[in-house]
C-alpha cells in the first residue's frame, strides 16, 4: 500500500532560487533612463544658453530616480545609470557659463595689455606709435624707426598727429611722462557686437604737483579684430579724459 505522503509533490522553496534568477526580475528605473538620455542631450546647452532647460530637467529626473531607487531597493535598479545622467547634466549646465566667464576674463586681460602698451608709448614720448594703435590693424604702419619719417612726409599724417597730440588726454600723458602712475580701475562695458569683441575700460592716472597728489581718469573703448592670419589685434577707437566712474 502506497503512503499518500509519497504522492504529494514537494513544495517549492524560494531559497532554492539563485541570486542570478532574482536579479532578472528587478525593474530598471524609468526616471534613471530618462535622466541618462537627457544627460546625453544636455550638450545642446553649449550651443544655445536657452537650452539649459534640458540639463535642468535631466538633473531633476536623475535625482528623482536615485531617491526612488533608494526607497525601493531591491525592486528598482539603475543607480549607476542615474548617476551618469546626473553627472552629464551637471557638467553641461555648468560648462557653458564657466566657459563664457573665462573667455570674458581673457578678453579683458588682452585689452588691458594693449592699453598698457598705449600708455607706455605716450609716457616714452612716442605719440606717433600711440596714434597707430587707434587705426584698424590692417591699415597700420610698422612701429619702427621709420614711422617718424612716415608722418613727416605726408601733410595728412602730419596734421593727424598734431590733432592727436592736442587731445587733452594724450597731451596730459605726454607732459607727465614717467611721473604719471597709471592704474587699471574697472571694465565698465563688454560685449560682442558686429563680429568683434568690444571693451570699455577706465584707468586712473595719478601724479604729484605743487598742490599734492592728483588723479584724473581716462576711459578707453577698445575693439578686438580677427585678422586674416587667424590672429587677433586690438584698436583704441575712443578715449575720454576726466571721465568719472560711477560711484565717485
Explain how this protein is built.
The chain has helices at residues 4-7, 19-23, 30-41, 53-71, 79-123, 127-132, 147-153, 155-166, 168-176, and strands spanning 27-28, 76-77, 181-193, 196-209, 212-226, 232-241. Helix 7 crosses helix 8. The strands form two sheets. The protein has a four-stranded antiparallel sheet with strand order 3-4-5-6, covered by helices on one side. The protein starts with a helix and ends in a 7-residue tail after the last strand. It has two domains: 9-100; 124-241, no CATH class. Strand 3 and strand 4 (196-209) form a beta hairpin. The protein is an alpha+beta fold and 248 residues long. 22% of the residues are buried.
Task: Summarize it.
With 248 residues, the protein is an alpha+beta fold.
What structural keywords apply?
alpha+beta
Give the total of beta strands: 6
Overall shape: elongated
Task: Tell me the helix content.
Answer: 40-55%
Cα separation of the termini? 114 Å
Total count of helical runs of at least 4 residues:
9
Radius of gyration: 34 Å
Low-confidence runs: none
The pLDDT mean sits at 87
The helix-and-strand class reads: alpha+beta
Number of domains: 2
**What characterizes the major β-sheet?**
4 strands, antiparallel
Beta strand %: 15-25%
Question: Strand-and-helix sequence, N→C?
Answer: HHEHHEHHHHHEEEE
Largest sheet strand order: 3-4-5-6
Amino acid at each position: 500500500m502506497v503512503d499518500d505522503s509519497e504522492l504529494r509533490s514537494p513544495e517549492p522553496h524560494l531559497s532554492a532560487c539563485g541570486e542570478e534568477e532574482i536579479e532578472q526580475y528587478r525593474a530598471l528605473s524609468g526616471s534613471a533612463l530618462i535622466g541618462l538620455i537627457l544627460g546625453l542631450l544636455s550638450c545642446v546647452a553649449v550651443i544655445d544658453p536657452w537650452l539649459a532647460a534640458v540639463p535642468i530637467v535631466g538633473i531633476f529626473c536623475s535625482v528623482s530616480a536615485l531617491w526612488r531607487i533608494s526607497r525601493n531597493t531591491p525592486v528598482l535598479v539603475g543607480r549607476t545609470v542615474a548617476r551618469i545622467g546626473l553627472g552629464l547634466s551637471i557638467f553641461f549646465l555648468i560648462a557653458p557659463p564657466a566657459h563664457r566667464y573665462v573667455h570674458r576674463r581673457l578678453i579683458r586681460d588682452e585689452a588691458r595689455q594693449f592699453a598698457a602698451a598705449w600708455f607706455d608709448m605716450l609716457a616714452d614720448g612716442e605719440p606717433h606709435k600711440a596714434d597707430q594703435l587707434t587705426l584698424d590693424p590692417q591699415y597700420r604702419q610698422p612701429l619702427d624707426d621709420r614711422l617718424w619719417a612716415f608722418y613727416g612726409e605726408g601733410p595728412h599724417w602730419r596734421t593727424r598727429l598734431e590733432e592727436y597730440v592736442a587731445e587733452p588726454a594724450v597731451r596730459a600723458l605726454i607732459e607727465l611722462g614717467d611721473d604719471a602712475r597709471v592704474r587699471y580701475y574697472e571694465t565698465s562695458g563688454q560685449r560682442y557686437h558686429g563680429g568683434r569683441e568690444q571693451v570699455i575700460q577706465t584707468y586712473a592716472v595719478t601724479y604729484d604737483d605743487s598742490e599734492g597728489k592728483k588723479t584724473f581718469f581716462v576711459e578707453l573703448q577698445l575693439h578686438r579684430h580677427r585678422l586674416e592670419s587667424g590672429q587677433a589685434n586690438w584698436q583704441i577707437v575712443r578715449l575720454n579724459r576726466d571721465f568719472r566712474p560711477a560711484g565717485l
